[in-house]
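Sequence in, structure out. Go.
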Amino acid sequence: MDSQLFARALGNIGPEAVQRTELSRRLHAIQPTPEIEFDGRISRSTTVGRDQQSGHPGGSKDEIRAHRAGVNSLAIDRFEGRLLISGGAEASIKLWDLATAENTQHKFINRPTAVIEKSPSSHQYGINHVCFYPFDSLAFISSSYDHKVKVYSTEHLTPSATFDLDSVVYSHSLSPMADHLLVACATQHAAVRLVDLRSGANTHSLAGHQRAVLSVAWSPHEEYILASGSSDGTARLWDIRRSSNSLGVLDLNDSVGILGEDGLGMNARDRHHGKAHTDTVNGVVWSDDGKYLVTAGHDERVRVWDMSTGANALCHFGPIIKNTHLSTLLPLLVPSNCLEPGKQVMFYPNQKEILMFDLFGGTLLKRLRIPGVVAAPIRGSAMQDNLRNRTTSLAWRAGYVGLYSAHSDGIIRVWLPVTPEDAAADKDTAQEANSDEDESRKRKRDALEEIFRDLTRQKITFT
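Output:
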């Protein structure tokens, strides 16, 4: 870092290069931060639409959980990185203020600023997915097992729109740059459903998959391009302007793409046949520059696709990947402004741990084990189907180097960087605190000894 600052002082590099280097250094120093916890126990003043049957979060009084039945989804607003929303398996949605936990050197318990409990006007079953409105953090969208997609205001926490899709909604996506305000929904139905927030219509469908759709994602740079993953093993690309809609499928056996072997289309594969995975595809994520698409499947593979050609980039992440649960599982790609040019880092929510990979090389950079949890069991063991402590969702805090994870045990965990400089500073602070505490104890002990001496010196007369 000193060499970077010296080069910056000489004018050899710009401030952006220094920033990228420092953010990248801090990224690789991420580790668990158990001092920050999320306690979902609430008072009546923070509850909206509380169901009479909704009680105190389960478990013993010593357990601190964000949601009593498990956390299924997290989202952090992309503008200030201050608000976090969490969707629970017990049908509640909670809003948290992350700024309250900043600059804390000791244990801190974050409590929700507002809660939407199960009620006739809110969701009736578990929340599958939540996301902020991409242009304004004052609104967010939720989808649930109750077949409904709802639009909420973060100020009033009442649904401003509700769409009933007559099918379980596993996830949804709203374009980060388009003007059309179409919400793409992955449902138990074999077609991608489109909901128009402007007109309120929910009748448009994109047909092509043969089984349930589990994940959808709009391109961050092409407003009409959509990707989807299905339990039929296919990952499809769509252009909603076309009458046929489908642009084709991604083929795991295709490493040359539409350009072919000679760059002119020779031996290029048919775009309408093939599978991205040999089993269910339950995760589809774009890189923030729109050049790559990442898919995750039940064949326990993560694949990277070059979207300029549609070719399989042949990135291999080894046998460590686990993915068996029938729900959306989204890898998290670190924003490119936190990395050096040409680099890309992926966090993968593995069973009972979070894996940090170099996206293009497939190298395992770090294995973040969940505190107090044993590593994922091997295939075939009796514990394979134990879903407790499963990592269900990851969220990146914009403007910070910080990762938040949701888990099926009801806990939201925080992962922050601790560099050698940070560790040294924390040690000095702890030593100073201990020194101050020892000095205070010494003064109290001296005062007590002086009082005792005064009492023993007094002459006592009995009459």
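Check: Helices lie at 2-9, 15-27, 420-457. Confidence is low (pLDDT under 50) at residues 50-61, 380-386.
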